[in-house]
Amino acid sequence: PQTFYLKEYTPFGYDVESVHLTFRLTPETTRVLSKIRFAPKADAADKTFFLHGEDLQLISAKIDGQDVAPEATDKGLTCNVPSAPFTWEAEVEINPAGNTALEGLYMSNRMYCTQCEAEGFRKITYYPDRPDVMSTFTVRIEGDEPVMLSNGNPVGQGEGWAEWHDPWPKPAYLFALVAGDLVNYPGAFTTRSGKEVELNIWVRPGDEDKCAFGMEALKKSMKWDEDVYGLEYDLDLFNIVAVDDFNMGAMENKGLNIFNSSCVLASPETSTDANFERIEAIIAHEYFHNWTGNRITCRDWFQLCLKEGLTVFRDAQFTADMRSEPVKRIEDVITLRARQFPEDNGPLAHPPRPEQFQEINNFYTATVYEKGAEVIGMLKRLVGDENYYKALKLYFARHDGQACTIEDWLKVFEDATGRDLQQFKLWYSQAGTPRVKVSEDFADGTYTLTFEQSTPPTPGQPDKAPRVIPMAVGLLSPNGSEVRPTEVLELTGAKQSFTFDGLASKPVPSILREFSAPVILERETTNAERAFLLAHDTDPFNRWEAGNALAKETRVAMVLDGAAPDAAYLDALEKLVRDDNQDPAFRALVLTPPSQADIAQTLHERGFTPDPQKIYDAAETFTQTLAQQLETSLPRLYAATTVDGAYAPDAKGSGKRALNGRILSLLTRLDGGEQAVRQYAAADNMTQQYAALAALMKAEKGDAQSQAFFDQWQDDRLVMDKWFALQVACSAPQKTAATAAALTKHALFDIKNPNRFRAVFGALAGNHAGFHHASGEAYALLADNLIALDKLNPQTTARMCAAFQTWKRYGTDRKALLRAQMSRIAGAPGLSRDTNEMITRILD
Ligand code: DPP
Ligand code: ZN
């Protein structure tokens, strides 16, 4: 397969002045007529006229009205063209109903919809399908669908047709078309300059009652972007459409966002608090792309983090503002460590701006998104808030309407702040998570912190240069008061010391506050000091971090030495959980133990071979011991955290319910499920219904409730995804593979629906001890299903291969089993380019 390189970028030799498209929709033989005005660029070095095109049947092609005979391959076509501006016309036929890859124009529940990012437009018609080619689009849709939508503003419609015009030049990846039997949930927003914008969420009939929350989230996002970034919406209309079959979460097509229905539809009865928070964040994310992604887009796909890192950073700021800043930060760091750290420390490691790829869909990764956002957070910390917003203002002023690079982005910061970002830029080009070793010294009132940074080799990058690392540090006195507030130390060398004078006694340092950089801190410290920070740190993130470190140390000692759970830690936990002055959401987070995968990762970092069954046993023992320790407090805590009154998915209520759910799961270990059975029966919202069901299923006491849940929700696809996932997530290690296998035979399992596939196999890969059970059955089951899915949907298959990325850290037997299954996938006949690239990288 062909490899594409960042260094080989060359501009397209033609401007595209306008694009007119006509769609004649039928499920199996849709005709797409294009009329595109090209103008040769005077200064172009390369005048090759190449149009991308895949899976298209070319019916006819014309230049300036004359038939031409282009040379076509399975990748696109070339043609002799005039040296003056000309009009290209083509008619192609495509098969939306047969498109199970869900890329280009496809059908989902009899509805037509598109997904063009990154390179799906080439499956719709011949076109220079690259983000630096921007043009205005006029679209005519012909068909008998009741609703027919495209980007921009409507310009006319009649019996069997509708026409749309998008005045903003855009790359083809932002093109969208939707047609089907849809109903709209309407809304309106007045921009700060007084422009009236019509808003709609389009859904299948019957889903109208799940749109209210999404609509509010959209309005809040529009207001927030005006207030915080000074950015206004720029069309008369903003449409969101919910689609059941979708490879990703959502897509920011100009004026016509398309969402995986799981990321927009919400109601108290069918969605958990976590779903609500995620939906609010994704609606914000896609809306924010209108400026960071659409008005300013990427020059090429290597620059993907230019739009994604920035937009994730912006949606995190939004969530922090709408809810709780520390809670959001802790949640994000948990996710970063669970998803990005394994990637950055394994065979799939790549920099936020990769320099090569075979299939760009394989680079919509935690590194590009989440680490991309962390890099922006560091930049903001280094230059300060005021300079950050000054630089952003310059970015929008200078680059509006352009397709940009990371160099453009950093130049804006250099120009706005006068800072040299040469060394900082390494964050974009070097892969791997830096390790920062900390040592300390105290003499004559002077405290010295010494940092040493190094980054292990990653594929293709054996040696790393030191990076700029903002270390947010505060100092506490031994009595718990803060003697130095947070200060950002700039670590730039491989080894560097910082001193603090005039201290009465040796302080306790609180290092990497707010998780100020995505690094792994290595520091010799005691559990007593961790417990001290858990009780006294003024930085909420580091308080949580201290508790998290204690939990890890305890569990690691249990796994390695068969130790009992650390009594001091259990006491500290009990004290915190019982302290009603503490934020319930925070208590819930402290009470959530590190995942088993996280313990495996920690063991691996320390040079041990993780044994998943032992890690599982330690987790069980720990939780059981904790439940017993809290035994007398649990009923009171359960009652105290029960939220009365009408359900509202706000930060306060959801924090309380999160703690309540944790308490219930502990209680269920002691009361035989009595309370959970009661809660299940009484619950009037999904959060509490789901928490009760999960607690019961985990205790293997939930058969009746699981059946009741199925009976109640079998017609709701999104709730059924929860049901599928929960069975696998809650099953004991020796039963996990069999449970998942049985679910693939269930009448409601549908391999073509990515949400359902991910429900089962995401949960399988996420059940650490079950997935890695010594029998190897789960590995084989996943491989069987990935091989089957690859023939239908390469993109989702390739992404799910990441379940294997940590394979090298396990023992010899498991490694052999894993290798055998991956080799089987690699050898499957007709393997897609997507999956081949992923499996090859992982196996390497
Ligand atoms: N550009 C999309 C998003 O991140 C990816 N499908 O929102
Ligand atoms: Zn995005």
Automatic annotation (TrEMBL):
Keyword set for this entry?
Aminopeptidase, Hydrolase, Metal-binding, Metalloprotease, Protease, Zinc
The Aminopeptidase N-like N-terminal domain sits at 21-174
What cofactor is needed?
Answer: Zn(2+)
Q: Which part of the chain is the Peptidase M1 alanyl aminopeptidase Ig-like fold domain?
A: 432-523
Return the broad EC class: hydrolase
Which InterPro entries is this protein grouped with? Aminopeptidase_N-like_N, Aminopeptidase_N-like_N_sf, PepN_Ig-like_sf, Peptidase_M1, Peptidase_M1_dom, Peptidase_M1_pepN, Peptidase_M1_pepN_C, Peptidase_M1_pepN_C_sf
Catalytic function, reaction form: Release of an N-terminal amino acid, Xaa-|-Yaa- from a peptide, amide or arylamide. Xaa is preferably Ala, but may be most amino acids including Pro (slow action). When a terminal hydrophobic residue is followed by a prolyl residue, the two may be released as an intact Xaa-Pro dipeptide
Citing just one GO molecular function, the answer is: metallopeptidase activity
Annotated Peptidase M1 alanyl aminopeptidase C-terminal domain residues: 528-843
Q: Which CDD domains match?
A: M1_APN (cd09600)
Domain of life of the native organism: Bacteria
Concerning Gene3D superfamilies, the annotation shows: 2.60.40.1840, 3.30.2010.30, Neutral Protease Domain 2, Peptidase M1, alanyl aminopeptidase, C-terminal domain, tricorn interacting facor f3 domain
Domain (Peptidase M1 membrane alanine aminopeptidase): residue spans on this chain:
213-424
- Transcription regulation in keyword set: no
Q: Name one GO biological process term.
A: proteolysis
Q: Which Pfam families match?
A: DUF3458, DUF3458_C, Peptidase_M1, Peptidase_M1_N
Query: What EC designation does it have?
Result: 3.4.11.2
NCBIfam families membership:
pepN_proteo (TIGR02414)
Record family assignment: Belongs to the peptidase M1 family.
User: What protein name does the entry list?
Assistant: Aminopeptidase N
Q: Which organism is it from?
A: Leisingera methylohalidivorans DSM 14336
Q: What is the lineage of its organism?
A: Bacteria, Pseudomonadati, Pseudomonadota, Alphaproteobacteria, Rhodobacterales
